[in-house]
Amino acid sequence: MAKPATQRPKLPGVGRLGLVELTAREDLSRLGWTTDDHVELLWSLSRAPDADAALRAMVRLADALESDWPELNQALLKDKALRGRLFSVLGGSLALGDHLVARPQSWHLLAGAVTLPAAEELRHSFVTEAENVADPRTASLPLKALYRDRLMVLAALDMAPTVENEPVLQFSAIGAHLSDLADAALAAALTIAVKTVCPNGTPAPVISVIAMGKCGARELNYVSDVDIIFVVEKADAITTRVAGEMMRFAGDTFFEVDAALRPEGKQGQLVRTLESHVAYYERWAKTWEFQALLKARPAAGDPDLGVRYIEALMPMVWTACEREDFVVEVQAMRRRVEELVPAGVRAREIKLGTGGLRDVEFAVQLLQLVHGRNDEALHVASTVDALAALSAGGYVGRDDAANLTASYEFLRLLEHRLQLQRLKRTHMLPESDDEEGMRWLARAAHMRPDGQHDALGVLRQELKRQSLRVSRLHAKLFYQPLLESVGKPGFSDGMSTEAAERQLAALGYEGPQSALTHLAALASEGGRRGRVQQVLLPTLLDWLSDTPDPDAGLLSYRRISEELGDLRWYLATLRDEGAVAKRLMRVLGTSAYIPDLLMKAPEVIQLYADGPQGPKLLEVDPDTVGRALVASAGRHQDPARAIAAARTLRRQELARVASADLLGMLEVTDVCRALTSIWVAVLEAALNVVIRDKAPEAGPPARIAVIGMGRLGGRELGYGSDADVMFVCEPNAGVEESVAVKWAVTVAEQVRALLGTPSADPPLEVDIGLRPEGRNGPLVRTLSSYEAYYAQWAQPWEIQALLRAHRVAGDADLGERFLLMADKTRYPAGGVSAETVQEIRRVKARVDAERLPRGADPNTHTKLGRGGLADIEWTVQLLQLRYGHKIPSLHNTSTLETLDAIGAAELVAEGDVAQLREAWLTATRARNALVLVRGKPTDQLPGPGRQLNAVAAAAGWAGGDGGEFLDNYLRVTRRAKAVVLNVFGG
Question: What predicted TM-score, i.e. pTM, was given to this entire model?
Fold first, then answer.
């Protein structure tokens, strides 16, 4: 039976070739690619990242070649490798396509067996070209063409589809060749600069160019600034001119050259001697400058001077982690990196976005700095080589290092493709709705359909997977080896205890030995709990390290985990709800106040999650909680059990409010109102249960109302505030006043005793010092007794105290009548006397002079210090006393609301009112933050250090920088004090 004739492949349709432009058929005709002889050529064209762009460029190239076009056409038909290289370049880089059209004979560089020249060969070709230029002013064009030719060859080998018997270029080889190319270009630029500045045989200065950054690490991008530092034998006008001319020429011809990493940055000298460099790094350099030196290497110029520079400075690099401010500066660097990218484009930024290249590079460099002094194997520059060395030394798990390397190389591949398209520096993915742009990137990166997704779908899936993997491994990179160092047997080839302690210290843990003990306890728990902890801890520790006090945070996490370990939802929630775990770590690493509450009110941790309408912490209404508290206490006959029930709900509400506050979800005014609401509810519950318990069978002999004073009356309580109150009673019908008062005193004493019972919760102190006659006066008075006293005996301080009187609990009608009575004293017709105003001023002066606690700093005491809460509140109250009889809007117990009324009435200039308001808010935030951080009431801001940073973070200061927070506090209160002095001065 005869064999069938061999079937020649048929010419495919335009659409099947990936050509979508209307001119495609015409362009193919102009090239003569319309017969079945061109099938394989056209299929190669279809594999270009953008077949239309490649076809357009081919037409332009054919026109540029003119009579030489048939030679290229025949070569394309015969040479499959040439087809792949040329079409990949033309479809993947518009800029290199333009270059090839401008220099059409350069196509020969892509034909046949193409190899990359060695570094010395590259340098020789570039320097020779520079030396052969007669006039330095004409050197740019030929050198630029040479540079683009070499870039084109590399891009062609990089982007072309795999050809049989031709090795695939590895990522490390691409970065190394680009760096070699940059070295050659820098050497040529230095040659031109010397010829320009030192003509006619003038001796050339001894100068060495030190490559930094990616070029220094030999992992350069296609398009990148090349970071350099100049070191010279003699720093003078000549060497400075040579360096400047070299940078100018390189920028015009090859790439931007950036010398901002030199000592003192852009403000520093462009050139320095080796001795000057050493002196600077010994005395002034910051941690980031030593981190930058990790990648330093001589790139051009005098090689001996370059080697001496590296030998002199590298020992300082490997001791940088012992610097006193190393941890603080590292944390600041991490924050700066995160803040560099606007939130709106973070998902598209493959360099600086979350899970991007900088995450990998920063983590690797930090581990090198921490362990490099003790392990010379880590003295490598490239990220990939450093990951391999860290893995070999047990500082990073082998699988983690391999996965992170793969993710890093994938992201660098996308970065290279994006930059090649127009030879522009970019790290930004196309917009999510730019399907054509993303499809081009997928094809350029050799993404192939996988059966479920086309190339575009594969790219999107891979981007998501790699970003998540980098984010997860970024935490594991630091902490998984730490867990292994304290874990079960079998990790003996991992990190040593000493290395683990070094690493924890560098990550902000001041007690690394204790931290390892806590890790061992958490990771060694048996069963499911231990397994979940081992999964959770790397990420939790990473989040903790970014808090003001990771040591305290880790201890609190251990205590809470041991306390709540039997609650199945606890670890499951932390594992499955990333927002809950991250917020909990921030709370634990900042506050000593909240963790104790959470151990007794663990259900609040579940409120750290996000609900449909936002954080669940904000879904609770304080007034609803208050009513529930009163009702819960009312269900118990025994007063002690009733108050215990009230404490339970109070504990939950305090934990909720404090958590939302510290996490930046509540304004300070909302915090004060919520804290006041819960105090009012506790007072109401306690009064109700005691009245019921103490009432005789005939019923209570008197009605009782509780009048809130001070911040309680102003609805402005803080975490450390007592409840300032007065008790007022009125006999019921048929009851003698003495009997009623005696019974009311018993009730009031019992309320105070019940609430004052020692407890592990924040205290419930009831302060009655603002009653008539102060602490020497009766605990309870009748309404008529109060009225008689105030009418005849009221002292200026008692009148002032009444300005904040407000009914908070007990009989509503009695409370309202008390306030109407008080109005006659605090807002009398005709106003208070001039003597009263003068006495208030005198007392304020005495308070300023005498009341500040011994040893307190008057500049930073939030209550009694300069421009603090007392200053603002006394100023507001003085204005109320002087003008309350004429301006009804001043009849208000709230400081802030009264300030608004003062401004509206133009009693004080609008700007001064704003200063007072800002100072009150600033001091209140600081005072509340002090309690959150220290766990107990205090009014004195600490000095610079970890605790001040924690106060800044708890007060909502962006970045949590204690120094900046303190500067702002001093500035705001200083301005407020000037207003206070003006008002009290009349």
Answer: 0.77
Domain end, chosen from 799, 826, 853, is at 826
Is residue 911 pLDDT above 70, yes or no?
Answer: yes
The number of domains in the chain is 4
Residue 18 gets which letter from DSSP? T
Q: Are residues 354 and 408 in the same domain?
A: yes
Length of the chain counted residue by residue = 986
Distance CA 721, CA 723 (A): 7
How many angstroms separate the CA atoms of 597 and 950, rounded?
19
Query: Pairing state of beta strands 723-731 and 226-232?
Result: unpaired
Residue 488 has pLDDT above 50, yes or no: no
The CATH number that applies at residue 134 is 3.30.460.10
Listed as own residue / partner, the contacts of 663-670 with beta carbons closer than 8 Å and 24 or more positions apart are: 663/583, 663/586, 663/587, 663/608, 663/615, 663/617, 664/956, 665/615, 665/617, 665/618, 666/618, 668/921, 668/924, 668/925, 668/928, 669/896, 669/921
Radius of gyration of the chain (CA): 38
Does residue 933 contact residue 591 with C-beta atoms inside 8 Å? yes
**H or E stretch at 44:** helix 39-46
Longest dimension (CA), the chain: 133
Query: In terms of Cα–Cα distance, which of 519, 529, 526 is closest to 557?
Result: 519
Q: Provide the β-strand partners of residue 746.
A: none
Place of tokens 């009311």: 744
**632 in any annotated domain:** no
Residue 912 CA to residue 978 CA, distance in Å, equals 9
Pair 160, 76 in one domain:
yes
Residue 827: HSE in the Cβ half-sphere, 13 Å Cα cutoff:
20
Query: What is the Cα–Cα distance from 945 to 768, expressed in whole angstroms?
Result: 38
Tokens standing for residue 477? 């990179």
Sign of CA dihedral 939, 940, 944, 945: negative
Looking at the structure, do residues 378 and 467 belong to the same domain, yes or no?
Answer: yes
Q: Can you say whether the dihedral through the CA atoms of 84, 89, 92, 97 is positive or negative?
A: negative
Structure tokens at 261: 């990493």
DSSP bridge pairs for 230: 209, 271
Taking 80 as the threshold, does the pLDDT of residue 493 lie above it? no
In this structure, is residue 403 part of a structural domain? Answer: yes
Domain end, chosen from 769, 801, 826, is at 826
Evaluate if residue 8 carries a pLDDT over 70. no
Q: Are residues 841 and 799 in the same domain?
A: no
The residue ranking higher by pLDDT, 10 or 506, is 506
The angle formed by the CA atoms of residues 879, 885 and 888, to the nearest 5 degrees, is 85
The answer to whether residue 252 sits within a structural domain is: yes
- pLDDT for 7 beyond 80: no
The residue with tokens 């029930």 is 645
| Sign of the dihedral defined by the CA atoms of residues 34, 37, 38, 43, in that order | positive
If asked whether residues 760 and 846 sit together in one domain, one would say no
Helix axes 303-317, 274-283, angle to 10 degrees: 10
* CATH number of the domain residue 971 falls in: 1.20.120.330
Amino acid 529 reads R
Q: Tell me how far apart the alpha carbons of residues 105 and 84 are, in angstroms, rounded to a whole number.
A: 18
Q: What is the pLDDT of residue 494?
A: 63
| Residue 348 φ then ψ, to 5° | -95, -15
Domain encompassing residue 804: 666-826
Question: What beta strand segments (E) does 456-613 contain?
Answer: 610-611
869 contact partners, CB below 8 Å, separation of at least 6 = 862, 863, 920, 923, 924, 927
What integer is the mean pLDDT of 127-137? 93
- The answer on 384 and 294 residing in a single domain is no
Q: What three-state secondary structure class fits 518? A: helix
The total of other beta-carbon atoms located within 10 Å of residue 274's CB is 18
Residues 813-858 have pLDDT tens digits of: 999 999 999 999 999 988 888 898 888 888 888 888 788 888 899 9
Judge whether residue 452 has pLDDT over 50.
yes
Q: Which residue has the tokens 């100018």?
A: 248
Position with higher pLDDT, 337 vs 2: 337
